[in-house]
C-alpha cells in the first residue's frame, strides 16, 4: 500500500472543468475551484487490495449473491455471485448494444478477473477490478483516506494543462505511438495491441502527467464520490465553485429514468479504460465522465484514493 509520503501533492486552484466538444453530459465548461490534496499516483493494485482483504476479511459485492428484490425479473441463474466481464466479439457488431461484448459471468470477482478459471498470477501490479463503489469506499476508509470528488479527480488528471483535450496535451497519438492503455483496432472484435495490452496493464506502464500522476487516461475507469447528474448545475454567473463537490448531483437525481424498475443510484466514474476508442467510447480524456450503478463492479473499473489537506 502507498504510504501518505508516497502520495502526490496536488496544488489547489481553479480550472476549466468539463468540455463542450464531445458528450453532452461533459458540459457546460465551467471554472471550478478545488483545495489542495494528496492523491495516489496509481490506481489501487491487486497487491494493495489483497493486503486490505487479508487484514480485514472484507468481502466484495461481486462475491455475494445479488438481492433479487433489486433485480425484478432476473433469471435465477443470474442471482449468484459474479460480475460483468468484457468478451471480445468474433467480428463487427452493433455498437448500440453493449451486450455484444459484455457478459454476466458467475464467479468473476477481483481474484478471478475474467471468471472462475482465472487468477491474479502476474497481475499483482495491475489495477484491482470488479470493485463496486462500496468496495472502493471501504478500502479508502481502511487506509485513512477518501475517494476523490469528480472535480478533484479531473483537476489532478489535467496535470496543470488547463483546458487541454488529454492528460498529455491536445494531440491524440493512441493509434500510432500510444501514451496510455486504450483500444487500437476494430472495436470490439480486433485489438492490434499497439499499446502492448488487450486488457489491463501494470500501473505506471505509461508516462505520467504534469503532476506525476499515472494512468489518469485509459487502463481502468475510476470511481469518484459524486452522484451522477446528466445536466450538472451551473453556478450563478459562471464563476468558480467553492468546494471540491461543486458540480455533484444528488442520490435521487442519479437514478436512471430509463430503468425505473431498478432504482439503483449511480456515481461518476472518470478516466476511460483499456476499452475506450474514438469508435465507441472516446472517453480517455479528463473531461469525460460516465454514470455507474453503485453496486456494479466490472472488469474495467478500479479506483484511487486521496487525502485532503
The total count of helices amounts to: 3
Specify Rg, calculated over alpha carbons: 18 Å
Strand arrangement, major sheet: 9-8-7-10
Strand content: 15-25%
| Low-pLDDT residue intervals, each spanning 5 or more residues | none
Overall helicity:
under 10%
Largest sheet: 4 strands, mixed
What can you tell me about this protein's structure?
The protein has 309 residues and is mainly beta. The chain contains 3 helices and 11 strands, in the order ββββαββααβββββ. The protein has helices at 46-56, 133-142, 150-158; strands spanning 8-10, 13-17, 30-34, 37-39, 82-86, 102-106, 221-227, 266-270, 289-293, 301-302, 306-308. It has a 4-stranded mixed β-sheet. The chain starts with 7 loop residues before the first strand and ends with a strand.
Short summary:
Helix content is 10%, strand content 16%. The protein has 309 residues and is mainly beta.
Strand and helix map with partners:
Elements: E1 8-10, E2 13-17, E3 30-34, E4 37-39, H1 46-56, E5 82-86, E6 102-106, H2 133-142, H3 150-158, E7 221-227, E8 266-270, E9 289-293, E10 301-302, E11 306-308
Parallel strand pairs: 7-10
Antiparallel strand pairs: 1-4, 2-3, 4-11, 5-6, 7-8, 8-9
Features:
four-stranded mixed beta sheet; 309 residues; three-stranded antiparallel beta sheet; mainly beta; globular
Amino acid at each position: 500500500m502507498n504510504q501518505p509520503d508516497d502520495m502526490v501533492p496536488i496544488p489547489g486552484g481553479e480550472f476549466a472543468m468539463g468540455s463542450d466538444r464531445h458528450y453532452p453530459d461533459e458540459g457546460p465548461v465551467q471554472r471550478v475551484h478545488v483545495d489542495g490534496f494528496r492523491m495516489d499516483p496509481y490506481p489501487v493494485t491487486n497487491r494493495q487490495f489483497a493486503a486490505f482483504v487479508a487484514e480485514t476479511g472484507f468481502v466484495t459485492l461481486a462475491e455475494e449473491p445479488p438481492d433479487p428484490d433489486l433485480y425484478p425479473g432476473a433469471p435465477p441463474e443470474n442471482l449468484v455471485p459474479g460480475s460483468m466481464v468484457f468478451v471480445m466479439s468474433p467480428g463487427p457488431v452493433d455498437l448500440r448494444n453493449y451486450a455484444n461484448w459484455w457478459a454476466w459471468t458467475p464467479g468473476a470477482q477481483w481474484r478471478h478477473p475474467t471468471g472462475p478459471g482465472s487468477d491474479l498470477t502476474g497481475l499483482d501490479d495491475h489495477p484491482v477490478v470488479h470493485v463496486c463503489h462500496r468496495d472502493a469506499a471501504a478500502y479508502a476508509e481502511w487506509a485513512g483516506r477518501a475517494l476523490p470528488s469528480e472535480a478533484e479527480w479531473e483537476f489532478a488528471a489535467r496535470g496543470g494543462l488547463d483546458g487541454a483535450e488529454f492528460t498529455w496535451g491536445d494531440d491524440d497519438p493512441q493509434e500510432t505511438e500510444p501514451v496510455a492503455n486504450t483500444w487500437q483496432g476494430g472495436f470490439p472484435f480486433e485489438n492490434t495491441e499497439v499499446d502492448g495490452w488487450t486488457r489491463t496493464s501494470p500501473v505506471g506502464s505509461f508516462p505520467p502527467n504534469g503532476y506525476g500522476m499515472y494512468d489518469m487516461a485509459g487502463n481502468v475507469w475510476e470511481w469518484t464520490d459524486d452522484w451522477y447528474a446528466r445536466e450538472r448545475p451551473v453556478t450563478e454567473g459562471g464563476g468558480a465553485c467553492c468546494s471540491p463537490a461543486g458540480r455533484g448531483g444528488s442520490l435521487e437525481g442519479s437514478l436512471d429514468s430509463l430503468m425505473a424498475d431498478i432504482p439503483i443510484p449511480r456515481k461518476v466514474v472518470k478516466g476511460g479504460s483499456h476499452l475506450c476508442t474514438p469508435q465507441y467510447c472516446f472517453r480517455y480524456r479528463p473531461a469525460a465522465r460516465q454514470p455507474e450503478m453503485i453496486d456494479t463492479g466490472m472488469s474495467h473499473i478500479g479506483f484511487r484514493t486521496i487525502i485532503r489537506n
